[in-house]
């Protein structure tokens, strides 16, 4: 079984992925942030490094999905290949930070890859407002995220909502994280567990 957690920067994907992996005995697969050689450069000079960064993520995520499919295990994935292609790359292109040539090249590569990857059995989308995202980003204090603008986060949020509205590749569970605290409140985390159980097992 392949479960995936989607959401904007700071929505809580990694934290929730860890909790769900522990609760349901799923093997977690995390986003390759620490070893990503382009991330720091990208946040300091987006126009120069946007294509390199997106190709790195696309390659990393495609490799991850192929491993998930071949493993035969129950796996939960932090962020999906669809988010790269439907949110981050188009946003960079729309902002003038990725050239038409690079974006067309990227899109062509994604479309080729998409034919080889299956959609997750359940997609969990963490919906969040911009103030909540900003608060969470500041709390975790990653240096390379300090330069992220509210405008950039807002553009991403708009694309996330448009993508989720039209998502039809499989089961979808939307969790509004603005008014819950699944990190510090066990009841909120339990509510998420129950909703996931209902989606996967058809319980009401």
Structural class by helix and strand composition: alpha/beta
Runs in which pLDDT lies below 50 for 5 or more consecutive residues are none
Order of helices and strands: EHEHHEHHEHHEH
Cα Rg: 17 Å
Number of helices: 8
Can you describe this structure?
By secondary structure, the protein is α/β, with parallel strands linked by helices. It contains eight helices and five strands; from the N terminus they run βαβααβααβααβα. It has helices at residues 13-24, 39-44, 46-71, 81-94, 100-114, 130-140, 150-165, 186-201, and strands at residues 2-7, 27-29, 75-78, 122-127, 171-176. The protein has a five-stranded parallel beta sheet with strand order 2-3-1-4-5, sandwiched between helices.
What key phrases describe this protein's structure?
204 residues; alpha/beta; 5 strands; 57% helix; globular
The gist of it:
By secondary structure, this protein is α/β, with parallel strands linked by helices. It has eight helices and five strands.
List the helices and strands and how they pair.
Layout: E1 2-7, H1 13-24, E2 27-29, H2 39-44, H3 46-71, E3 75-78, H4 81-94, H5 100-114, E4 122-127, H6 130-140, H7 150-165, E5 171-176, H8 186-201
Parallel strand pairs: 1-3, 1-4, 2-3, 4-5
Helix pairs in contact: 3-4, 3-5, 4-5, 4-7
